Amino acid sequence: MSGPRWLNTSEMRAWRGLMGMSRLLFEQLGRELGKEAGLSMADYEVMVQLSEAEGRRLRMSDLAAMSLLSKSRLSHQVARMEATGWVRRESCPSDRRGAFAVLTDEGFAVLADAAPGHVEGVRHHLFDLLDPDEIEQLGAITTKLYQHLNTVVERDCAAPKRDGAVSEAV
Amino acid sequence: MSGPRWLNTSEMRAWRGLMGMSRLLFEQLGRELGKEAGLSMADYEVMVQLSEAEGRRLRMSDLAAMSLLSKSRLSHQVARMEATGWVRRESCPSDRRGAFAVLTDEGFAVLADAAPGHVEGVRHHLFDLLDPDEIEQLGAITTKLYQHLNTVVERDCAAPKRDGAVSEAV
DNA sequence: CGGAAATGGTTGAAGGCTAAATTACCTCGA
DNA sequence: TCGAGGTAATTTAGCCTTCAACCATTTCCG
Predict the structure, then answer these.
(1) How far apart are CA A100 and CA A58, in angstroms?
(2) Tens of pLDDT, residues B64-85
(3) Are A57 and A50 in contact (CB under 8 A)?
(4) Which of residues 81-110 of B have CB within 7 Å of strand D?
């Protein structure tokens, strides 16, 4: 039994930095978005995905995957957004289990209004502080890690099912 | 009025990468911690801070600052941990408003049990995928951003008070 | 065909998080 | 010494998230 391989100084700096930085960054951006446009990061993310999609509509599953939300969470999220009028549900003709989430004109307008300020925030708290090299490095590192994690999460959350029932034994 | 400065390709890659990566990373580590040791990332973080402190105890405010939790959230958090027996509260003799959170022996044992697996997870999902240069870069970038954000958050959350009442006008 | 299993999506309950209000105490200055 | 204002921490209420159970439909396959 070899003891656990603890983090060295360089690793510890990266770990603490990453943890603190991402926590504060997303909290801060969320706060600003809430104050300036009255929406949450989840609202924003969902609307962005819809706005970029063909016909401003996506199947719930696809939208969930793109926004990195669980199906359940997306369902609640869309329910709230439907209540405020930013999104509408439509049933899918080809698969009667399915549902589309559609961005309404009102939703699009809200997004268009919020976007410039949000991008400014991202610049102000992130890119304005980094030089082009650092942005490249950050992109390379995070993309690589992201891809790895995607496969891990898929494996981990598909066997024990992210939602849905568990099939007992073989 | 110049239009908003949208993100260029490099920036967009870094932004999407950072967002996706950090979401998945912390979710995954949290899931593993929950499965393997029965505790949340917040539990873990709080216990680490306490375990490293003089006498395994910290004032609630200091603990909140170190763990990047709001006072309110920490109060709830510690209440739960007290109920499970991992932490105990002690009142502060020198300032009777104050309270210490103290890591119990049981809490320390739970942490000691959880730590090796958690560190393995951090290695497996993060450092094993990066070479030393990249770890250096990540550390440099995140530390710089973290420091900036700390000042921003302090400013933003101290004027409109993170808790407490607002003093009207001058 | 017909039934088992898988898929798409929703629901409800339980618990966590946030913001605002509250309690209790300390500090400073007139 | 008194009171105004600040600080430490908790509490309450409302919203959000998660987990597990559920319904409806489709697909797979003997």
Answers:
(1) 5
(2) 999 999 999 999 999 999 999 9
(3) yes
(4) 89, 92, 95, 97-100
